[in-house]
What we know:
Helices cover about 80% and strands about 5% of the residues. By secondary structure, the chain is mainly alpha-helical. The chain has a two-stranded antiparallel ribbon with strand order 1-2. The chain starts with a strand and ends in an 11-residue tail after the last helix. The relative contact order is 0.04. The model has no long low-confidence stretch (mean pLDDT about 85).
Amino acid sequence: VAVVAQGAKRYDVKMDLRKRLDQAQRDLELKEAVKIQNHTRITVDWHAKSELQAHTHVRRRREKIMKEEVAQAATELRISRRAKLKDLLTKEMIEYKEELKTKGIVAIPNDYQH
């Protein structure tokens, strides 16, 4: 064991070297732990972004489907209303012609359409 005298204290060179090696080892372990932690954080962030994108894609697809369904329902409603209106007007025209006929007034011909 090499011992060096420094002032009034004795200094053990081997112990100092061992302490520095231990500290260097701890520093390396800490750096590795930080690396692993950073890698884990990056991976978690990536997964979160991927999940968000997937949810966004699903949400957009649902919104698109809903818009298509609303448009289809509006079209069907418009067709149904037109058919009902046509039936109503046809019935009214028939009733009007019959009323005129009972009064002896000439009605519009049956083949007349707008």
